[in-house]
Specification:
Elements (H helix, E strand, L loop, with lengths): L5 E7 L6 H12 L5 E7 L16 E2 L13 H11 L3 E5 L6 H7 L4 E6 L12 H10 L5 E4 L2 H11 L6 E3 L14 H8 L11 E6 L8 H16 L3 H4 L2 E6 L5 H10 L6 E4 L5 H6 L3 E4 L8 H8 L4 E4 L4 H4 L6 E4 L4 H13 L1 H18 L2 H18 L5 H5 L4 H8 L3
Helix pairs in contact: 2-3, 7-13, 11-14
Length: 412
Amino acid sequence: MKAGAAHLVHVIHRFDTGGMENGLVNLVNRLPASRFRHTIVPLTNTGRIAARITNPQVRVEPLLLQPGPLARALPTLWRMLRRLRPSIVHTRNVGTLEVQIAALLAGVPVRIHGEHGWEVHDLVGSNASLLRTRRLLRHFVHAQVALSAPTLAYLRDRVGVPSARLHSICNGVDTDCFRPRTAGEQSERRHATTAEGGPRAIIVGYVGRLADVKNPLLIVDAFEQLHAQTSSHDRALATHLRLRIIGDGPLAGALHERIGRSPLRDRIERIGMRDDIAVYLRDLDIYALPSLAEGISNTLLEAMASGLPCVATSVGGNAELIEDGTSGTLVASNDANAMAAALGRYARDERLREAHGACARTRAVERFGIDRMITDYEALYTRLLLHHRVVEPAWAAAPTDRAGALARSGTN
């Protein structure tokens, strides 16, 4: 049995800005360093999110693999795992699942896989080839983590993962970093005016990857319909509506072109990737999430923690986060009319915005705080390490440096 910190190897496709990657950074920063050390292995490459790692014991080792079947890289993966000798290999999403073959052959004692979300070519596990891969490789994995109830049901009912190997761990949000405006900030904002001397704008915002599965083009359609619907009965309010889109991704060019064709292009602001998302969220009035599929959306949690009323499509785990009609509004997927109508109700009613925003904040704090996520992962890792006799019982019982982990984590 091993003494000292258990070595976790986290395998992801690409280590760059995204909800799954954000959760991984929070995890490696906050797990007790006396008990766990980490190596993050991106199969392709890494981006700016690596700068947010504050735990000095974390290593990032990108493999820089070229596109193609992952099976071709199994010898490389086997050699890497033999060199690193981890106690646990934790793969994330189906694009990394074949790494579990190499982990088995390399003798890794504990093997975990997590399903965090979906891509447009595999909406809610619809891809038959990937379903076969999941069914075949489920036998190589000791535990599978599902971030949402629909994902857990899919893994159990369609993939055939035994219930004893399934674990539900929701994303967590840092409710200190992501917070509502203070009373002073709120007062200042209410009395602010535009450059022309009129009332301050009402800003609808989206934060996230500009990718097909997130459906960001729909938010432009919905904003145009919102403006048209509002103009018909309150022209003054319509002039104050603004849309702000924050993020980057493969649809950035298409989104730029779509905004350029919009008659409201002067009222739509495109902001690229930012590291100060908490500040930007506090400047919004309403948050919109038009995704075609979701696991558990980090940005939706962040918006809720920021005290924003949220309009989100009723897909994946969104219904687990939002209480429809209390802390936000759920609408049908890919329905610009429904999203525009829901946004309009909030735009017209400041008291409704404040009430639903306050409920969203309370829900984020009470049910989705980041400490719960860290505790759940620590408990899962510890249980499996003990069960497979990788560590002694005394290892699990020893005090941890949780306070030090929290200090290192900063505001991630």
